[in-house]
Amino acid sequence: MPIAAWSRSLIPDEKIDIDDATLKDVLRSQIDVSAPAMLAATLAFHCISADEAKRQAAASMSEIRPAAHFVIDKASLHAVRPLLLLDVAGLSDSAPGPSARGVAVGAGIGVTVITARLEAGYMRTVS
Questions:
Q1: What are the pLDDT digits (tens) for 28-44?
Q2: Is the separation of the CB atoms in 81 and 3 below 8 Å?
Q3: Average pLDDT, integer, range 63-92
Q4: Closest CA to 59 of 70, 73, 48
Q5: How are beta strands 8-9 and 76-91 bridged, if at all?
Q6: What pLDDT is stored for residue 97 in this prediction?
Q7: Where are the alpha helices (DSSP H) in 7-123?
Q8: CA angle at residue 87 from 84 to 88, to 5 degrees?
Q9: Which of 38, 46, 78, 119 could form a disulfide with 110 if both were Cys (CB 3.0 to 4.6 A apart)?
């Protein structure tokens, strides 16, 4: 989870002058309603039946809708996240008996800038 004070959404949730909606609401409406209708109209203009145009538009929009909703709702311009680290490693050979095993724990920080993610941490062996 990002630390709210050190994070900022890529698309702000700000009120705009259209029907007391937010910018995110308008963008969601554009992706869910306007874009499929405009694409269907464009396809129908190019001599495709109206039903086939609607079907093709719905299929095309279903491919991009999840990515568009992620960008609208969850993408961060920048975000800082705490990290908890755990590492378990083992060494064994074919001989019977216990094998060597190590466990390490640690903490770190993750920084996301649009799509680039940088993470750093420190771990200490506990067993």
A1: 999 999 999 999 999 88
A2: yes
A3: 91
A4: 48
A5: antiparallel
A6: 67
A7: 23-29, 35-45, 50-73
A8: 145
A9: 119
